[in-house]
Amino acid sequence: MINQWQEKADTSRLCRLLGVSRSGLYAARRRYSAPRACTLAAPLQAAFQASGGSYGSRRLSASLKAQGLSAGRYRVRRLMKQHGLKARWKRKFVHTTDSRHDLPVAANILDRRFKPDAPDQAWVADITYIRTERGWLYLAAVVDLYSRKVVGWAMAPNMPAELVCTGRQHEPQGQLLG
Q1: pLDDT for 91-142, tens place per residue?
Q2: Within a domain: residue 111?
Q3: Whole-angstrom distance, CA of residue 24 vs CA of residue 20
Q4: Range of 9's domain?
Q5: Burial classification of residue 154, based on how many CB atoms lie within 10 Å of its CB (0-12 exposed, 13-18 middle, 19 or more buried)
Q6: What is residue 136's predicted lDDT score, i.e. its pLDDT?
Q7: Cβ count within 10 A of residue 45
Q8: Which of 52, 54, 71, 122 is an S-S bond match for 64, by CB 3.0 to 4.6 Å?
Q9: How many domains does the chain have?
């Protein structure tokens, strides 16, 4: 209504007459203006499909910016929600043990008897990995089952078969393989 009269009279005077604030008038004009077609919908969906459905709002925003399209992260997030695009996370865990192999398997000498009668009758070994500033280190420890004490250990930047054998020393000492 005000838009029709605006040519003939001052905007602020008409707002006062109708009891509307000027900021309210301008907000209403923005709200009721013709809806803009979203120019990001098609490129957004294309970038999402190209990523295999794994990109979230941050990566999609960067991808659209690389194409020369202005798209903030929160706008991309809102558009993803509107179009039903939800990123699927890929598992980062990698199985390192393969029990189905044709390699020889050592005999089970202990047969679940983990309480020996004297020291140095049964030793067990385990390997774990430790993250350091220089990368991963593998630690092999040999434990006497009777005393539950570490009788030997060895560390190496890779995991050779000799790692446990090197750690099998009777005195509780270790060796760093390089």
Answers
A1: 777 777 778 888 888 888 888 888 999 998 888 888 888 998 888 899 888 8
A2: no
A3: 7
A4: 2-82
A5: buried
A6: 87
A7: 16
A8: 71
A9: 2
